[in-house]
Amino acid sequence: MPKRSPSVIVVSHGHSDHFSLKVLKAYPDVPKIMSRATHEIIDPNKKLRNIVYVEHGETIEVAGIEFSAYNAGHIIGSLQFSFNFDGKDFVFTGDFNLEKRLILKPAQILKGDVLIVDATYGSPRYVFPKRSDLYREIVAVAKRFFEEGSPIIFKGRRIGTAQELVALMNASVDVLPLVEEVVARHNSVYEMHGEWLGMYAYWNGQPPDMPLPIIAGLNSRSGGKIPKCICTGWVKGKLAFPLSSHADYDQIFRYIKESNASLVIPFCGFRKELADAVSRELGIEISYADKTRI
């Protein structure tokens, strides 16, 4: 919990590692900036107070500061923010993705003096294959199991990768995908905000009577002995693909290089590795400390 009450709270998107309901509820009178889709995800019963909505391309003034919002390309409702404070232009990326995908538009690179950038995959070890190659390989795995008469479960983060997998199966195979309930709940938020994922049916957790693709959350325990294919940037195992809604190392590095920032502050993930590479290769000042005085 912050030691001092903030003037404003900015929520970039609806993944649980980027907000705390406890903190948001503790400051009922503090303005909380977020997209409508993010609000749907984090507060479906609408109990939070003082929500200030903003969408891509809009600028709002809160607490005497103008915040401009831009699509982040990460999950539905994810936003980047730019604002001017004390004579400096700040950019906060939140989690982002620059790559063209079946769903969501890619993020644009914003320019500013100070860049606060996601570093989840900020290590050179995390350079992902092209999306088109990943799609082709995932579909090939699905069809191989179908030919063998077996269903297959594709597991991805329930908000983000799971919806991409639903769209991919709809675009690539001739059978109806089954979707775990927790994934389907978030599918509805995507669809409510204009992201059509295609047709699907709810999965009851039991093996289907025919070979079908099943989309489930990463932590799902359903499915018993049905073969499972893991889709996440943190891939482990033989049947796994680095399909992630995050930017990989090359995207993060590109963003920093093209942002024209004179100071970079990475958050999450491999902050030190990213800082070392940026300092060495770009000569840009970068601070990965938990607290940075600007």
The coarse silhouette is globular
- How much of the residues is beta strand, in percent? 15-25%
Structural classification: alpha/beta
CATH architecture of the largest domain: 4-Layer Sandwich
Report, as a whole number of angstroms, the end-to-end distance: 22 Å
What's the number of helices?
A: 7
How are the strands of the biggest sheet laid out side by side?
4-5-6-7-8-15-16
Annotated CATH homologous superfamily of the largest domain:
Ribonuclease Z/Hydroxyacylglutathione hydrolase-like
Overall radius of gyration? 20 Å
Count of extended strands: 16
CATH third-level topology of the largest domain: Metallo-beta-lactamase, Chain A
Helix content: 25-40%
User: Residue-averaged pLDDT, rounded?
Assistant: 96
In the residues, how many domains can be counted? 2
